[in-house]
Design brief:
It is a single chain. This protein is an alpha/beta fold. It folds into 4 domains: about 170 residues, Rossmann fold; about 230 residues, tm_1862 like domain (pyruvate-formate lyase- activating enzyme, Alpha-Beta Horseshoe), CATH 3.80.30; about 60 residues, Nucleic acid-binding proteins (OB fold (Dihydrolipoamide Acetyltransferase, E2P)), CATH 2.40.50.140; about 90 residues, Up-down Bundle (YheA-like fold). The chain is about 45% helix and about 20% strand. The chain has 20 helices and 22 strands. The chain has a 7-stranded parallel beta sheet with strand order 1-8-7-6-5-3-4, with helices on both faces. A 5-stranded mixed β-barrel has the order 18-19-20-22-21. Helix 7 links the parallel strand 7 and strand 8. The longest helix has 26 residues. The protein is globular, with a radius of gyration of 30 Å. Bound molecules: S-adenosyl-L-homocysteine (SAH), iron/sulfur cluster and FE3-S4 cluster. The site of FE3-S4 cluster has 12 residues, from helix 3 and helix 8.
């Protein structure tokens, strides 16, 4: 591989290391010169696989690229730079990546400037980077999850040395703040609260690909959320592989419950969080969720298995009974709370009886949604070393049976919804029909309903009229124009600028000295007109001079100056409102 410079390769032993303390780095983005010149007039496309952590990484990489001068491409075919952001959680996620890289061969051969990079969790596995570089000679850059803040420098080195590069470090990870970001959605946003994972469930690769569990400072999280509220975002999802662990590393009493409450108080209309581990779900968390109406009553609570022995072998730290007890506590404290889950079937040596425990647990809990997976051995994890006696056929058979039970539970919730009206955050417009919207209820149900595209980004009442397996059909219960008017009125009454304007106006109306100047100005104007009609030039000039000095006094009067400042501050808001109503 003479064309490839290997700067660093991943090492699973290093990835397990939890001794190094994370540093807090406040990033200052500097665009290196060759990258800046290269980016001019070029476009990028990022193709992301995997979970929300990867989606958020895509937004941050987009931020870096846009600071450098790249623009988002209209399609992947049109892009000059493509980054494939990979997931390693299961074998099939990895197979998809190889297929994806292959798609860019022709483009790369045709255009020597075309740049292809592969990054993300899969690159953190031993062997993956080298395999990609040797099997796909048109890949120019391979980097890992910890190298992301170095994206522009890596690109610079590739351009300067005219070499392809592999740079994948394995270390517990730092916390990098002030990251640039270009968000993919303008009404729903993800906000990281923790990075990494220290749980080391025996089947899972994530603790190796994402490093140690580390929390972002509360102030940094709140600043990011505040900004989103100001920008008019309607939903924030707080992200972490394990949100319940938030703040434990600070050892100062900070907990997930405290940050959840602080964010809820910022007034974002919808607040979600994921993922919660059933092991350390506190009562304090339940109380906060129950207390704030803007915290969505919907908890993703991965059970993985319904059998205590399986859970022990998986390293999950709770029993079937513990889990069911938590479900009971949730339903007691938060009536009607939706529950969703992740389940793995066919963990090594899972018996039929153990699998049946998962089925009965699902029947009992009746999840609102469940993501079901067949166990996939991940090299380097403890479970991958276990000799497995369950055949592929049995695993698939169990998977199909599980799906039926899960579907029955999901359907029972859907049926109950028919005829009732729910708030839906309209976040999508049908590609085929601009008169059709889609969005989610508080419990995470997808609803399709007829409605004008300008309602995108609004929370609207929708009556469910039909249920389908994984989505519902609804009818809008409000006149769309009323929604817009409400929005404009709310905007005007909420915005600080309009409050300041109202106060400045009140002071202006009540100030006697301003009223006196205004009267005197009117007087002088009258005299100017009289003198003009009598061709009294001298009198006219005198009255005009008087008027001019009064006008100057008026303009400089603090109450008037304050009103003018408030007016110009209000202007952009009025424009925004006019746009809403257009
Ligand atoms: N941190 C989250 C999610 C991690 S990955 C959590 O703990 O819930 C998302 C899901 O992928 C997991 O919940 C698990 O159900 C599944 N998963 C992880 N490793 C897997 C493996 N080796 N094979 C099959 N499914 C796996
Ligand atoms: Fe993986 Fe377990 Fe950590 Fe979730 S909690 S990311 S399943 S190791
Ligand atoms: Fe996949 Fe990495 Fe997320 S392995 S599930 S993208 S943390």
């Amino acid at each position: 591989m003479g064309r490839v410079v290997v700067k660093s390769l991943p090492d699973m032993k290093q990835a397990r290391n939890r001794t190094l303390r994370p540093s807090l780095i406040r990033e200052e983005v500097v665009v290196p010169p060759l990258t800046k010149a290269f980016a001019e007039g070029k476009t990028y496309h990022i193709k992301t696989f995997g979970c929300q952590a990867n989606v958020r990484d895509e937004e941050i990489m987009s931020g870096y690229l846009e600071v450098a001068g790249f623009k988002r491409a209209s399609s992947e075919e049109a892009a000059d730079l493509v980054i494939i952001n990979t997931c390693a959680v299961r074998e099939n996620a990895e197979e998809k990546v190889y297929g994806e890289i292959g798609k860019f061969k022709a483009h790369s051969l045709k255009d020597p400037e075309f740049t292809l990079a592969v990054c993300g969790c899969m690159m953190q596995e031993e062997g993956a980077a080298k395999k990609i570089m040797s099997s796909y000679p048109y890949v120019n850059l391979v980097f890992g999850t910890h190298n992301m803040p170095n994206l522009l420098n890596l690109l610079e080195e590739h351009l300067a040395r005219k070499k392809d590069l592999i740079d994948v470090i394995s270390f517990p990870g730092d916390i990098v703040e002030n990251l640039p970001s270009s968000r993919l959605d303008d009404c729903k946003a993800y906000v990281n609260i923790t990075y990494g994972c220290d749980k080391f469930c025996t089947y899972c690769i994530v603790p190796y690909t994402r490093g140690r569990e580390r929390s972002r400072a509360k102030e940094d999280i709140l600043k990011e959320c505040e900004e989103l509220v100001k920008q008019g975002y309607k939903e924030i999802t707080l992200l972490g592989q394990n949100v319940n662990s938030y703040g434990k590393d600070f050892k100062d009493g900070t907990s997930f419950a405290t940050i959840l409450e602080d964010v809820a108080k910022l007034g974002i209309p919808r607040l979600r969080f994921m993922t919660s581990h059933p092991w350390d779900f506190s009562d304090e968390m339940l109380e906060v969720i129950a207390k704030y109406p803007n915290i969505m009553k919907c908890i993703h609570l991965p059970v993985q298995s319904g059998n205590t022995e399986m859970l022990r072998l998986m390293g999950r730290r709770y029993s079937r009974e513990d889990y069911l007890d938590l479900v009971r506590r949730i339903r007691e404290k938060i009536p009607g709370c939706a529950l969703t889950t992740d389940i793995i079937v066919g963990f090594p040596n899972e018996t039929e009886e153990q699998f049946l425990d998962t089925l009965t647990l699902c029947e009992q809990v009746k999840y609102d949604a469940a993501f079901t997976f067949i166990y996939s051995p991940r090299k380097g994890t403890p479970a991958a070393a276990i000799n497995d006696n369950v055949s592929d056929k049995d695993k698939h058979d169990r998977f199909d049976r599980l799906l039926k039970v899960v579907e029955a539970g999901v359907m029972s919730h859907s049926k109950e919804m028919v005829g009732k009206t729910y708030d839906v955050l309209a976040d999508g417009v049908s590609k085929k029909d601009a008169g059709r919207l889609s969005g989610y209820t508080e419990s995470g149900k997808l609803v399709n309903f007829p409605g004008p595209s300008y309602l995108k980004g609004h929370i609207v009442p929708v009556k469910i009229v039909e249920d389908h397996a994984f989505s519902m059909i609804g009818e809008l219960q409000v006149d769309p124009i009323i929604v817009l008017l409400d929005d404009a009125a709310q905007k005007l009454s909420r915005e600080e600028a309009s409050i300041r304007f109202k106060e400045a106006m009140k002071a202006y109306r009540e100030d006697e000295s301003v009223a006196k100047i205004r009267d005197d100005m009117e007087d002088a104007q009258k005299r100017m007109m009289e003198c003009a009609s009598k061709s009294d030039d001298e009198g006219y000039q005198k009255a005009k001079n008087e008027y001019m000095s009064l006008a100057d006094l008026y303009k400089k009067h603090p109450v008037v100056a304050n009103l003018a400042a408030a007016e110009s501050e209000l202007e952009p808001l009025l424009k925004e409102v006019a746009e809403i109503l257009e």
